[in-house]
Amino acid sequence: MIFRLADSTLDQGRIDINALKSRLTLCKGTISAVMASILNPKEVVIIKGNKPLEVQYNKSHQVIVYASDARYLNVALACQKGWKHINLNMMRIAMLTCDCLDSLYSEPFEFYSSIGRSHC
């Protein structure tokens, strides 16, 4: 459902963050997601809602990895160098560009969680 909402916001292949935030206010439940448009794969949208989400990146490889728990990433990446944690608070939506992984833009978003309205 979240990916269909994001798809409906595409503007010249880019996910429109403001339009996606507006659509998320209509959602109810639990949420965290990482997505990109196949038309613009180097621009990644990270939604950290009320579900666990850990994200790391490697600048030299221009890659982002994520999991529900940091332990999974720590085990999978233990023998590799250059991974950095992306610190993102709950109820934030962020845009990350693979060409500039050191720069993270994020803003709050709202939706109905399973226990009521959630927002930052």
* Portion in strands: 35-45%
Helical residues, percent: 10-25%
Shape: globular
Extended strand count:
10
State the order of secondary-structure elements, H for helix, E for strand. Answer: HHEEEEEHEEEEE
Q: What is the alpha-carbon Rg in Å?
A: 14 Å
Average pLDDT value?
A: 88
* SS summary, helix count: 3
The residue ranges in which pLDDT falls below 50 over 5 or more consecutive positions are none
Helix and strand arrangement:
Elements lengths: L1 H6 L9 H8 L3 E2 L2 E6 L2 E9 L5 E5 L4 E5 L2 H7 L6 E4 L5 E6 L6 E5 L2 E3 L2 E3 L2
Parallel strand pairs: 1-9
Antiparallel strand pairs: 2-3, 3-7, 4-5, 4-6, 7-8, 9-10
In short:
This protein is an alpha+beta fold.
Note down, in words, how this protein is organized.
This protein is α+β, with helices and mostly antiparallel strands and 120 residues long. It has three helices and ten strands; from the N terminus they run ααβββββαβββββ. It has helices at residues 2-7, 17-24, 70-76, and strands spanning 28-29, 32-37, 40-48, 54-58, 63-67, 83-86, 92-97, 104-108, 111-113, 116-118. The strands form three sheets. A four-stranded antiparallel β-sheet has the order 2-3-7-8. It has a three-stranded mixed β-sheet with strand order 1-9-10, with no helix packed on it. The chain has a three-stranded antiparallel β-sheet with strand order 5-4-6. β9 and β10 (116-118) form a beta hairpin. The longest helix is centred in the first third of the chain and has 8 residues, at 17-24.
Any key phrases for this structure?
120 residues, alpha+beta, four-stranded antiparallel beta sheet, 10 strands, globular
